[in-house]
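Hi everyone, sorry if this is the wrong subforum. Our group has a chain we'd like a structural model of before ordering constructs, and none of us has done structure prediction before. Sequence below.
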Amino acid sequence: MKTRRTWRKQVNRPESGSGALLGRVLGGAARALRGRAGWAAGASVVLVLGLVGVWLFVGSGQDGPPDPRARQYKEFDACLLTDEKGIVAGAAAAPVWEGMQKASLETRARVTYVPVIGEPSAANARPFFNSLMQRKCDVVLAVGAPQVEVTEEGAKQHKQARFVVVDGSASAGNVTVAKSGDRLEETVAEAIRQAVKASGA
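Answer:
Right subforum, don't worry. Here is the predicted structure as tokens:
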């Protein structure tokens, strides 16, 4: 009896620390799950955890095989350098971008554009041009006087790449001059087609 009373005293003695907190939490959870309401709550929790597990396992599909409908691009990049207006409707670069997209559909070349933000000068456009060369663009297209000037200069140092300048004056072997007008879109598309073909990509 003495041992039993001692044990009871130890059990009823207030405890402290993380062990006591865990015990109170588990005890509260056990009391909450008694009866039909508890079973319903427990079933809901299990259902939610199951759905979360399925979502985590399946994910968004990015870890699985690629979507067969997704477009597979070649390792070929055509990059456009524009003024700060970019490729919006009515901008000088808009028809060039249309030609690039047309060529991309036909050749599966990747196409991107970079607007030169800030002062409209060759000095300001040069870092933007250099960034395209660092990205190893296979074809660099330029619209606007500062962008064309920098591209024609850079073409001399980057013989391995091809360049298309709108209303430029360069006559280098790796530079194509495209004239503004109704044929600009098709001229750009054809230049990219030829560049992709020549690359063997």
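For your construct planning: The first helix runs from residue 2 to 12. The beta strands are 77-82, 110-115, 139-142, 162-166, 175-178.
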